[in-house]
UniProtKB/TrEMBL annotation:
Residues annotated as transmembrane: 15-34
Similarity comment: family membership: Belongs to the GDA1/CD39 NTPase family.
Protein name: nucleoside diphosphate phosphatase
The entry's keywords: ATP-binding, Calcium, Hydrolase, Magnesium, Membrane, Nucleotide-binding, Transmembrane, Transmembrane helix
Pfam families per the UniProt record, alphabetical: GDA1_CD39
Cofactors: Mg(2+); Ca(2+)
Residues involved in ATP binding: 226-230
Organism: Rattus norvegicus (Rat)
Annotated catalytic residues: 196 (proton acceptor)
Domain of life, source organism: Eukaryota
Lineage: Eukaryota, Metazoa, Chordata, Craniata, Vertebrata
InterPro entries listed in its UniProt record: GDA1_CD39_NTPase
GO terms assigned for molecular function: ATP binding; nucleoside diphosphate phosphatase activity
C-alpha cells in the first residue's frame, strides 16, 4: 500500500486513469453521475455507489487515516488493458462537510491482458481471483460489503470480435458476483476511447486539486496506451469549442461546475 502525496511531482501513468478508473472512485462515485454507463468512469459508478451507502462503519476507520473523525471508505477498480490487468484499491478520507481526499492506493498488475484468454475464457478467472485477494488483504473486513467493485476494459477488448469480448466480460462478472464486495449490474464493461480520455483527465485534475478550486488552471492529458491513444484537455479559447466536431466534445458536471472538454482518440 502506498501513500498518495498531497503535493509534489505527479506521475501520471497508464494505471492511474482508473482513479479513474477509481478517482477515480469518489468523484466517479459521488460528484459525477456515471454519465454514460461507462467510465467517466469507474469512479463515477464507484463514487455514486459509495456515496449512496450512508456508512455507519466510521468506528472501524483505518487507524492510519489522516485525522480522527474522518469518514473512511474504499473503492476497487480493475483496469483491463491491452497488455495486462491491474487492480487499484483506493482508500478515501472525508472530513465532515468536505470533499473526500485520496489517502492510499494499493496496486498490482498481471500479464497478459484479458484479451489473451479470448479462446480460453475459464483461464481468465484465475488472474481476476488473484487480484481480488489483494483487495481482501488491504480492505478491512467490515468494509467489504460497502466497497464498490468495477472493471473497465480498454483497447485490448475493443479490438476483439464482439462475441469473444462479451464472453470474457461475462466470466469476470461471474467472479465479481461471487466476491464479498459491492457489485452492480454494470460492474463490468468496455470503455470507448472518449470515456478513457475523459477518465484520465478527471484523475490527473482531481489529484492536482484543479477540480475543487474555481478559476484554477487545469491540466491536459495525453495517454499513450498499448492499443490506443487519447488526448483530452479543457480549451481556453471559445473558438476551439466552436470549431471542434461534436463527437470530440464532452460536457462534464462536478463540484457544481461544468467542464467542456475536448477529447480525441
Amino acid at each position: 500500500m502506498r501513500k498518495i502525496p498531497n503535493h509534489g511531482t505527479l506521475r501520471m501513468t497508464k494505471v492511474a486513469y482508473p482513479l479513474g478508473l477509481c478517482v477515480g472512485l469518489f468523484i466517479y462515485v459521488a460528484y459525477i453521475k456515471w454519465h454514460r454507463a461507462s467510465a467517466a468512469q469507474a469512479f463515477f459508478t464507484i463514487a455514486g455507489a459509495a456515496s449512496g451507502v450512508r456508512w455507519t462503519q466510521q468506528a472501524f476507520s483505518s487507524p492510519d487515516s489522516a485525522t480522527r473523525g474522518h469518514e473512511v471508505f474504499y473503492g476497487i477498480m480493475f483496469d483491463a488493458g491491452s497488455t495486462g490487468t491491474r487492480i487499484h484499491v483506493f482508500q478515501f478520507a472525508r472530513p465532515p462537510g468536505e470533499t473526500p481526499t485520496l489517502t492510499h492506493e494499493t496496486f498490482k498488475a498481471l500479464k497478459p491482458g484479458l484479451s489473451a484468454y479470448a479462446d480460453d475464457v475459464e483461464k481468465s478467472a484465475q488472474g481476476i481471483q488473484e487480484l481480488l485477494n489483494v483487495a481482501k488483504q488491504h480492505i478491512p473486513y467490515d468494509f467489504w460489503k460497502a466497497t464498490p467493485l468495477v472493471l473497465k476494459a480498454t483497447a485490448g477488448l475493443r479490438l476483439l470480435p464482439g462475441e469473444k469480448a462479451q464472453k470474457l466480460l461475462q466470466k469476470v462478472k461471474e467472479v465479481f458476483k461471487a466476491s464479498p464486495f459491492l457489485v452492480g449490474d454494470d460492474c463490468v464493461s468496455i470503455m470507448n476511447g472518449t470515456d478513457e480520455g475523459v477518465s484520465a483527465w478527471i484523475t490527473v485534475n482531481f489529484l492536482t486539486g484543479s477540480l475543487k478550486t474555481p478559476g484554477s488552471s487545469s491540466v491536459g492529458m495525453l495517454d499513450l496506451g498499448g492499443g490506443s491513444t487519447q488526448i483530452t484537455f479543457l480549451p481556453r479559447v471559445e473558438g476551439t469549442l466552436q470549431a471542434s466536431p461534436p463527437g470530440h466534445l464532452t460536457a462534464l458536471q462536478m463540484f457544481n461546475r461544468t467542464f467542456k472538454l475536448y477529447s480525441y482518440r
